[in-house]
Amino acid sequence: MTKQNIVIIKYNAGNIRSVNNALLRLEQEGEITADPEKIIKADKVIFPGVGEASTTMKHLNETGLADLIKTLTQPVLGICLGMQLMGSQSEEGDVNCLGIFDEKVKKFQLPDPNPQNLKIPQMGWNQITDLKSDLFDASLEGKYVYFVHSYYVALGNDTAATTNYIHPYSSALQRDNFFATQFHPEKSGPVGEKILKNFLKL
Amino acid sequence: MLAKRIIPCLDIKDGMTVKGVKFVELKTVGDPVELAAAYADQGADELVFLDITASHEGRKTFVDLVHRIARHINIPFTVGGGISELSDAEALLNAGADKISINSSAVRNPQLIDDMAKNFGSQFVVVAIDAKKEETGNEWAVTVNGGRIFTEKRLFSWAREAEQRGAGEILFTSMDHDGVKQGFANEALAQLSDDLSIPIIASGGAGNMQHFKDAFEIGKADAALAASVFHYNEISVPDLKTYLRSEGIVVR
Questions:
Q1: Residues near A188 by Cβ (< 8 Å), separated by ≥ 6?
Q2: Is the N-terminal amide bond of A113 cis, ω within 30° of 0?
Q3: Interface of B with A in 167-206 (CB under 8 A)
Q4: Which of A79, A85, A18, A32 minimizes the C-alpha distance to A55?
Q5: Which domains, ranges and CATH numbers included, belong to chain B?
Q6: Regarding beta strands B47-51 and B77-80, do their DSSP bridges make them parallel or antiparallel, or are they unpaired?
């Protein structure tokens, strides 16, 4: 694959570097930046993130990144919190999000009774099913990917992958040029690498 | 369904992998990045790297090693050992660690858990607890400094406190079971799993494949960690997963 101009959006969220490490393993490299010019010109934009929704949205609104991200036309990939922030609204800090996707972000509630001793956050490897996006291909149906999250995106029109934890929810979303995964492809072994490669091929 | 996790643990001294039997007598077994990559290829779900180096230079070597691990390994990993301040955790986060584990330093200064969770998120904070069962009753004494010092804290109340302070996971090592290879401390694990709503990692005692099954079924653990059985190839990760799957346990 030829080298692409990939931008990883820099904002007040943790663990952004691990996405770039994953790109380096694919012989690509991302530039970690908040510069609007660079973001607009990039071939691909990755919007990663680990953190809290309402403080992060406040930061995105104040810096103008919120408006910028919504208007991007190249393929954009939101990861984990990045995906949740692309939804319409989050229960985490009760905040309005970017609204790129219609779906809302809700907090997992443990079942009562809880015979399987399910925990919050969901932490670990779970399966992706009902795949419906160019991010995926048939070989990825039912494969395991790595999740860490306490909030989830409900099923909706933009659902591109479904995972079952406590109940089925959206583990990936897609609308037009906007793609998003609740799981961490950068930490999901060969399966995650395949998904990142598919994104880079778009 | 969420899979049960298998986690090889690598003890690191001066940038090399070691394994202590009952926390003493160390024996070098290999290069950490090479070993870690091999485990990732075999299907390990996560890795833990524990730095047991005491010196200041050694600490820097460890941060450099974490950089290399993050660059080469495509599964999540936790690092621990000697983390006593926010700045230690931050250096490891910036080097690419997905989680840090704190043990003695959290016992001495429980506020550290709150501070780390607030600054880096609960998902980043694993609280490791080494405990030894008391001769009478159902209580376990929490120990520090690799099991050498007993504290006033008790396992179950300390684990609950750690959760309330913002721990994302509990890594429980039974000092009675560690290195003995007779199975995990399943009764205590099950109580932890029932008491807490965060994931519990079982550690200490793996000797054969059934011990892992028991830790998941009887101990209700979310993940199981082991070192020597993997390092000395007594159990291979692929064989273990095949076995667990055949026993009806969900694994990746």
A1: A125, A144, A145, A146, A195, B74, B75
A2: yes
A3: 168-169, 193-194, 196-199
A4: A85
A5: 5-246 (3.20.20.70)
A6: parallel
**Contact indicator for A124, B3 with CB cutoff of 8 Å:** yes
**Alpha-carbon distance B126 to B124, whole Å?**
7
pLDDT digits (tens, 9 = 90+) for A58-96: 999 999 999 999 999 999 999 999 999 999 999 999 999
| Domain ranges for chain A | 6-201
Grouping H, G, I as helix, E, B as strand and the rest as coil, residue A128 is coil
CA–CA dist B239, B220 (Å, integer): 21
Joined tokens for residue A178: 């906007």
Q: What is the pLDDT of residues B113-163, one digit of tens each?
A: 999 998 888 999 999 999 999 998 889 999 998 788 999 999 999 999 999
d(CA B70, CA A100): 31
Cβ within 8 Å, pair B2-A189:
no
**Count of C-beta atoms within a 10 Å radius of residue B242:** 14
Cβ-nearest to A123 among B93, B169, B252: B169
Among candidate residues A47, A42, A99, A95, the one with its CA nearest the CA of residue A70? A99
Of B74, B194, B220, the CB nearest to A187: B74
Identify all chain A residues contacting B96, using CB atoms and an 8 Å cutoff. 17-18, 21
Show the tokens assigned to A94.
Answer: 């009760």
Provide CATH code, domain A6-201: 3.40.50.880
Q: How far is A173 from chain B (nearest CA, A)?
A: 20
Amino acid making up residue B103: N
Question: Is there a contact between A104 and A169 (Cβ–Cβ < 8 Å)?
Answer: no
Per the CB < 8 A criterion, the answer to whether B177 and B184 are in contact is yes
> Which tokens go with B44?
């390990």
The alpha carbon torsion through B140, B146, B147, B151 (nearest 10 deg) reads -70
| Burial degree of B246 (CB within 10 A; 0-12, 13-18, 19+) | exposed
Is residue A25 exposed (0-12), middle (13-18) or buried (19+ Cβ within 10 Å)?
A: middle
Q: How far is CA B165 from CA B115, B127, B199, in A?
A: 9, 10, 15
Average pLDDT, chain A: 95
Predicted confidence (pLDDT) at residue A2 exceeds the cutoff of 90: no
